[in-house]
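**Fold in tokens:**
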Amino acid sequence: MTNLQTETTNPINLQRQQHLINFIERYNQRTQTSKKLAQDYRQFLADNKTLVDFNPTLKELFYPIVAKTSSGTKIVDADGNEYIDLTMGFGVNLFGHNPLFIKEALFTQLEKGVQIGPQAELAGEVAQLICEFTGMERVTFSNTGTEAVMTAIRLARAATGRSKIALFTGSYHGHFDGTLAKKKLLNNPDSIPISPGTPINFVQDILVLDYNNDQSLELIKTHAQELAAVLVEPVQTRNISIQPQEFLQKLRKLTQVLDIPLIFDEMVTGFRIHPGGAQAWFGIQADIATYGKILGGGMPIGVIAGKAKYMNAIDGGIWHYGDASYPQEKTTFFAGTFCKHPLALAAAKVVLDYLKTQGAGLQDKLNILTSDFVNKLNNYFDQEKIPIQMASFGSIFGTASVTNDESEKNTEAAIVFDLLYYHLLFRGIMLRGNGGFLSTAHTQADIEQILWAVQDSVEELRAGYFLP
């Protein structure tokens, strides 16, 4: 039971409870179809699609907004309410929703058909473009980011003959069992599963190290002969404020000296922070990198790109017609019916062509827009003495620190933050939990509307005694 549900005779708590009752009633009325659909289909649909954690105090608000249409920066829900979207497909929609140039490419491909089985017409061309952007030597395609990371790990293990993988606290690498690990003990890199359903043997070869900590480099040295790879989310979407260029450069030098493959998980940062991703931004070339999100233009896609010595395990390596050459490298297992899906590749091709035409100026302009937006938010929070600080990395933004401690998720502070999230939704601003993404479709008018919604939400929370 939270503090909000105790001491009901306390005048402040009574004011808070009345605020909750009134706000929940207004919010439920505004989004009644979304709530009804959640209730009607809960028996059939097992669904975790909500951006805040369940809390009994806010139970009547706990349902996802059902989207009906989208265009540019706007989403319209099942009740006809319009939102400025900052979720942006969790990083997918760099150009906003439903951009014409991607839609036309998809229509063109649909007219040609969706051929599954034969080689996709655009597979080679898209692979070549990705190599051109990233500096990698070879590419293969999967359907999701989770599959891409899983395959990258398998390629590293196949090439090195080793089993252990090092990854870092706070990182997210999809929902493959082999990465769902956390530290067993605070000062011990040995791991245990993060949740039920993942057997301990799936993570027994995972070392979980502290990010941006030189002690982790020493542990990598200690386990060098066992490590098949070090897996990094260069700027963690859960901890945007940590942007450790010096640490990453030390890590790159160390893994080169020790001959340990370095895998960059660039699902979110790839093509967003810079045309060459976080690797170009930080001046690092990883051995293997995984991409997706932006690349698919809204279609599901995963990409594994890397040096030939690792990627050759997909097909046996380079060979030519008309001579005695043949695939000489050992291969590992890789498959997927929908890999190289024609629609995904059509979208990827037009996205890459567009990014190539626009050049780095596209990302630069968007990065500046986001930095200015975050500065305005932080100035407001400072002036109003609100204990929230935002950080940005390119066009990604979020709170400067986020707890992963389960014991802190039902605290009063967590409830207040969740209430701010719902107050913003009520005012037509759709966040990604503790932050979000700006797109090239977002305008200064959108920014001004978001800032107004934040200020108005804060004032209402103050009136309800949730903020001082």
